[in-house]
Amino acid sequence: MFRTSTDPFYEMRRLTRQMDRLMSQPAAGAAGGGAFPPMNVHAGPDGIAITAEVPGLSADDLEISVHRDTVTLKGQRDAAPEGAKAWHRRERGTGRFVRTLSLPYAVDPEKVEASLADGVLKLSLHRPEADKPRRIEVKAS
Amino acid sequence: MQDEHQTQDEANREEGMEGPQEKLPAEAEGGEPTRSRPTFRPRCDIVETDEGLVILADMPGAKADTLDVSIERRELTIRAEVEDHAPEGMDLALREYRVGDWERRFRIPVEIDADRIEAKLRDGVLTLTLPRAEEAQARRVEVGAG
After folding, report:
1. What is the pTM of this model?
2. Is B2 domain-assigned?
3. For A82, how many CA atoms within 13 A lie in the half-sphere containing its CB?
4. I need a surface site. Which of A34, A77, B54, B133 has the fewest CB within 10 A?
């Protein structure tokens, strides 16, 4: 599923990895390394749905922007709890993060739906009508 | 404060499509799993304060009604069930995380006042406040007048 050049999302995955490497986030990825927040991308006939695990973030902490075929998530995770005298474990990441995702096609910026609940972000992106592949009926003569 | 188990060597995690931030599996012990979903170990911060210990655990997707916090002797267990939130009727094009339940155990080195443990779950982060047991309180013995 992953290597075929006919997979329109192949390029997206490649660019996402490159982008993450470029930004080489010091922040929120923390103990596990890698990029924060981790995202899953789902593709359907009418568009793309993105889910991301963003524990600790409220809607105010998160900035989402969509421009043509690019989605950017920006935000900040808070630092330590107050009154900390000593640390026994520090696995959660803190600080600023930015992640950029290049989609295989431009999405309609007017029709982005976002919801955030229990630390899970859901983004619904729609393919513009004019851009959808059209099925051509062949008329029997 | 010790984890019940050694931390898995995180450097071993796969550098592949499965995602850069692979979750760690929870320890599979203590009874048969009753659900088919995988269980993961939440990332935690544990700090010591004047009053006791505070544990912050990243448990995205967890809801308060499935959260279970229990302490038995000095073993603390946190657990929460997570419903799959993948949209239906769509194909997965990129997977950086898997959805599963959360579970982690800790061995607490100090005496905790179990009656005063506070748990708060907000935006997928569990905050557990574990007040140290006051010695005076622990030693107090009621003597009836008699």
Report:
1. 0.77
2. no
3. 0
4. B133
Domain boundaries, chain A: 10-81+93-129
Supply the range of the domain harboring residue B53.
Answer: 20-28+39-85+95-135
**Rounded to whole angstroms, how far apart are CA atoms A21 and A9?**
19
Best mutation target among B24, B123, B128 (most A Cβ atoms within 10 Å) is B123
Interface confidence (ipTM) of the complex = 0.78
How does DSSP assign A83-115, residue by residue?
Answer: T--EEEEE-S--EEEEEEEE-SS---GGG-EEE
- The three-state secondary structure class of A51 is strand
Topology of domain A10-81+93-129, CATH: Immunoglobulin-like (2.60.40)
- Residues A32, B43: C-beta atoms closer than 8 Å: yes
Q: Please spell the DSSP secondary structure of A113-125, one letter per residue.
A: EEEEETTEEEEEE
Q: What single letter denotes the amino acid at residue A41?
A: V
- Report how far residue B126's alpha carbon sits from residue B133's, in angstroms, rounded to the nearest whole number: 22
A8-44 per-position pLDDT tens digit: 788 888 877 777 776 655 444 443 456 889 999 999 8
For residue A102 the two structure tokens come to 């290049």
Which residues lie below 8 Å from residue A83, measured CB to CB, with a gap of 6+?
A: B49, B50, B51
Within 8 A of A92 by CB-CB distance, chain B residues are 43-45, 56, 58
Number of other CB atoms surrounding residue A112 within 10 Å: 16
